[in-house]
């Protein structure tokens, strides 16, 4: 593992930052987010430039690089206030799982579109009654006529209105209860019996969340990705990238907040010197800088471990990175608001709106408490409490 990025990685950072800066937070993202409208133009342009599929195999139109590069893309987008939530889902989770476990036909059908952004796939694991306890999911697939029939429901599923399909985590009828043996199905959003109802959320965010109802959705045999009872390995092939990409989005948002705060603190003077000269303003920003850098370092470690095939090491690092990045970005936004005084709560800067969005990372894709449970149990060897 090197701490020095290659020229190619540096160029990728610069190119993504340049694209995101042309769109920007206040003029482009914020008005869209307030209307709950996706960032379609930015997504399409990023897709055409090859940024969204950097992690996917070259033979399917991707960049042939890794989760490190995809997290770098997400971080740079978010650092301009233009992070794309569906990058966490479409190329990172779904693209990775299909790339690793899909059949040749599934790869042909999906990877080129996921790589250039022309197709999107949402991801559905969360259920109303199971919540953080995925072992309690009840969405069930039964075999029928050589295919599958899927029944159940999901909540908080992001971006279903933009997606061509949702990768649904279910159980087969043979494993209806007990420890989860996940079976993953590609479910087209236009399938009969598939209903998506928008959820009323109190966050200012361009991508919307949906409740899904799967009412005897008939699927062909080849809707199943990978093995029928592939245990958790197959699922975690996608969930570790999800956590790393969530961390990247949070680190980027934190950088945006810190940039806004320091720019303001250098200019604004209400006594004789700029407010940034007061340690009451400077020190909390310096702390935020340190915490963001530490979170980023853990995110990079997680990505390097994942890309080198160390799934166990990546799981611990990805959890820690997501935890640290969420906390650092929330603190960064809160301190940026404080630095701006009353202006921090004014609509023109959108910082309070971004704080709400940064807050998502403390809950999703896995909550702060579940990460602390993971670290207590797996890293510290403490007894499981639940
Ligand atoms: C904006 C947004 C987008 C999302 N997008 C998606 C998506 O695209 N796809 C998808 O599948 N899901 C998505 N989710 C769902 C998200 O992953 C869940 O909200 C999250 O995993 C927490 O589950 P829950 O909401 O059911 O909370 P619960 O599991 O009900 O937990 C409630 C609280 O109790 C705590 N808690 C639970 N169990 C324990 C325990 N054993 N010990 C200590 N504390 C505990 C939790 O940490 C949390 O604070 C999204 C959520 C949000 C908010």
From TrEMBL:
Claim: Cell membrane is one of the keywords in the record: no
Family of this protein: Belongs to the acyl-CoA dehydrogenase family.
Record's keyword annotation contains Flavoprotein: yes
Assigned keywords, A-Z: FAD, Flavoprotein, Oxidoreductase
Protein name stated in the entry: Acyl-CoA dehydrogenase family protein
Pfam families hit by this protein: Acyl-CoA_dh_1, Acyl-CoA_dh_M, Acyl-CoA_dh_N
Domain Acyl-CoA oxidase/dehydrogenase middle intervals: 122-200
Signal peptide positions (record): none
SUPFAM superfamilies assigned: Acyl-CoA dehydrogenase C-terminal domain-like, Acyl-CoA dehydrogenase NM domain-like
Annotated transmembrane regions: none
InterPro entries: Acyl-CoA_dehydrogenase, Acyl-CoA_Oxase/DH_mid-dom, Acyl-CoA_Oxase/DH_mid-dom_sf, AcylCo_DH-like_C, AcylCo_DH/oxidase_C, AcylCoA_DH/ox_N, AcylCoA_DH/ox_N_sf, AcylCoA_DH/oxidase_NM_dom_sf
Domain Acyl-CoA dehydrogenase/oxidase N-terminal stretches: 6-117
Cofactors named for this entry: FAD
Acyl-CoA dehydrogenase/oxidase C-terminal domain mapped to chain residues: 238-377
Domain of life: Bacteria
Native species: Tomitella cavernea
């Amino acid at each position: 593992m090197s701490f020095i990025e290659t020229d190619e990685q540096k160029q990728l950072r610069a190119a993504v930052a340049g694209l995101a800066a042309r769109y920007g937070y206040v003029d482009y993202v914020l008005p869209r987010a307030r209307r709950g409208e996706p960032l379609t133009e930015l997504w399409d342009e990023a897709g055409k430039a090859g940024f969204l599929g950097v992690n996917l195999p070259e033979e399917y139109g991707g960049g042939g690089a890794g989760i490190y590069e995809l997290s770098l893309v997400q971080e740079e987008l978010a650092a301009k206030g233009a992070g794309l939530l569906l990058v966490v889902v479409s190329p990172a989770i779904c693209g990775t799982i299909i790339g690793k476990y899909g059949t040749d036909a599934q790869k042909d059908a999906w990877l080129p579109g996921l790589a250039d952004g022309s197709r999107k796939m949402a991801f559905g694991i969360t259920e109303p009654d199971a919540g953080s306890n995925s072992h309690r999911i009840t969405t069930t697939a039964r075999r029928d006529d050589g295919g599958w029939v899927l029944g159940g429901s999901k909540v908080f599923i992001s971006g279903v209105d933009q997606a061509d399909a949702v990768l649904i985590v279910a159980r087969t009828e043979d494993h209806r209860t007990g420890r989860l043996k996940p079976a993953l199905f590609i479910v087209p959003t236009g399938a009969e019996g598939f209903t998506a109802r928008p959820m009323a959320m109190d966050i200012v965010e361009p991508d919307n969340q949906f409740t899904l109802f799967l009412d005897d959705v008939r699927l062909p045999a080849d809707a199943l990705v990978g093995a029928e009872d592939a245990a958790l390995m197959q699922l975690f092939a996608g969930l570790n990238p999800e956590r790393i990409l969530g961390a990247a989005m949070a680190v980027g948002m934190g950088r945006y907040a810190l940039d806004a705060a320091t720019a303001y603190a250098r200019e604004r003077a209400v006594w004789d010197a700029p407010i940034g000269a007061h340690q009451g303003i400077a020190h909390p920003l310096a702390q935020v800088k340190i915490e963001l850098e530490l979170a980023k370092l853990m995110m990079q470690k997680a990505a390097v471990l994942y890309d080198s095939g160390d799934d166990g090491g990546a799981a611990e690092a990805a959890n820690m990175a997501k935890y640290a990045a969420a906390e650092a970005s929330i603190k960064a936004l809160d301190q940026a608001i404080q630095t701006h005084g009353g202006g921090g709560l004014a609509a023109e800067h959108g910082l309070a709106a971004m704080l709400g969005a940064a807050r998502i990372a403390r809950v999703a894709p896995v909550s702060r408490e579940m990460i602390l449970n993971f670290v207590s149990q797996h890293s510290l060897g403490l007894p499981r409490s639940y």
